[in-house]
Specification:
By secondary structure, the chain is of the alpha+beta class. The protein has a single domain, classed as Chalcone isomerase. It is 25% helix and 25% strand. The protein has 4 helices and 7 strands; from the N terminus they run E-E-E-E-H-H-E-E-E-H-H. It has a 7-stranded antiparallel beta sheet with strand order 1-2-3-4-5-6-7. A hairpin with a 2-residue loop joins strand 2 and strand 3. Helix 1 runs antiparallel to helix 2. It is globular. The N terminus is likely disordered.
């Protein structure tokens, strides 16, 4: 994730819409790509991001109202611990959660986020009222409880986590704009 104020995000939809990750098919029918963009850190491409929504779309006024999936396709290798740390730092910059909550979230993320290699995909699936589930290349990430959810990964965590990209106060406003390009609800 390696988010910083000195980054540049480039937007643009690809000519052909890629298939939706299998992790979201069940929750978002009919699924559609709301937007996509790239995250760069000091000019280096870190990942490409895609936001997938269902017919309810995504609304800034009610970010927790409908399921969605944010998928990151990494373009370089990164350590899972660094991904977790960068995520926690962004939550702090956004003023989300208490210091104690962010510490608990950080520890949980450290246990969940794996080291990634070039072209690995991590998808976070938001389920309203339940929280988030993470997938690596379509498979649930290790370290999860039987039901696929960790108590620390509740709805409050999920909203703080996804705010890193989707909040109006994100440190990556160009990427946010690209992700939300076509996120409005559809009839």
């Amino acid at each position: 994730m390696l988010l910083a104020a000195t980054l540049a995000a480039s937007a643009g939809a690809s000519a052909v819409t890629p298939p939706a990750p299998l992790a979201i098919v069940e929750d978002l029918q009919p699924v559609r790509l709301a937007g996509e963009g790239s995250y760069r850190y000091f000019g280096l491409l870190i990942y490409d991001a895609r936001l997938w929504v269902g017919s309810q779309g995504y609304r800034d006024s009610e970010p927790g109202a409908a399921p969605f999936v944010l998928e990151l396709r990494y373009e370089r290798s990164l350590q899972g611990g660094r991904i977790a740390q960068a995520s926690a730092e962004q939550m702090e910059k956004l003023g989300l959660g208490s210091a104690e909550q962010r510490q608990a979230w950080l520890e949980t993320m450290r246990g969940i986020f794996p080291d990634v290699r070039e072209h690995d995909r991590i998808a976070g699936r938001y389920v309203p009222g339940q929280g988030v589930r993470f997938y690596l290349n379509g498979a649930p990430l290790a370290g999860r409880r039987e039901a696929g959810m960790d108590p620390a990964m509740d709805d409050r965590f999920a909203q703080a986590f996804f705010a890193i990209w989707l909040s109006p106060r994100t440190t990556a406003p160009s990427l946010r704009k690209a992700l939300l390009r076509d996120a409005a609800p559809k009839p």
